[in-house]
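ARCHIVE CARD
SHELF: 3
SLOT: left
DATA:
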Amino acid sequence: MIGKHGYSGACRPGAGWASQQTFSVGIFEWLPKASGNGEKKSAVKVRVSGPVSMPREVERRAAEIVKELDAGTYCGPKKVKV
């Protein structure tokens, strides 16, 4: 997976944050650990955010951006709102 991209978000809907109105996921690149054993996440390259009522749309957009980053074709903004 090194060189590929993924996304994650600790504050996704249903994660115990009942009062929040929006959430985001960060898109990162998988990098090799300095030790050579395993992988680690890079700093966030793109952040996708949207209302907690639209988690599928936020994750769908994040997945699209991951594909574009993997292909080397993403040229959009660092912050994307759904």
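SLOT: right
DATA:
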Amino acid sequence: MNKIIFSFFVAIISLGNLWAQVTVDGKTCEGVWKTIDDETGKAKSHVKVWQDKGVYYGKIVQLLNRPANDLDPNCDVCPGDKKGKKVNGMTIIWGMKKESSRYAQGKILDPKSGKTYDCTMWLEDKNTLKVRGWLAMFYRTQTWSRIE
């Protein structure tokens, strides 16, 4: 009987550790994030990340630092059904799943280039999200700051 209780206790602790690795102070990747361009260091947009049935998505809810004549651009270089659509409101992250220490198996679209990359995200702290897009062995990592 003691072995069963001990095994149950270890399983509960293990599940708690799994949860803690993708959360920080009870926070997950869900929320609104300010994206920072890793090339220029300037704020680019606000992206809302949400979860639906265990899959995480992200969409642009506000563009930042845009020229006055280009405040609401279309994505003319985007592939498929995103081609010609407004960047503001566009889903740019899809298919992300919670893994032991990160969110992975998803895709991220760069509306500037129209390229889609494999994506991994992880919380560095409760207000800092690291977002990495990669293709083969080439990757870029951005640091996003929590707004909400």
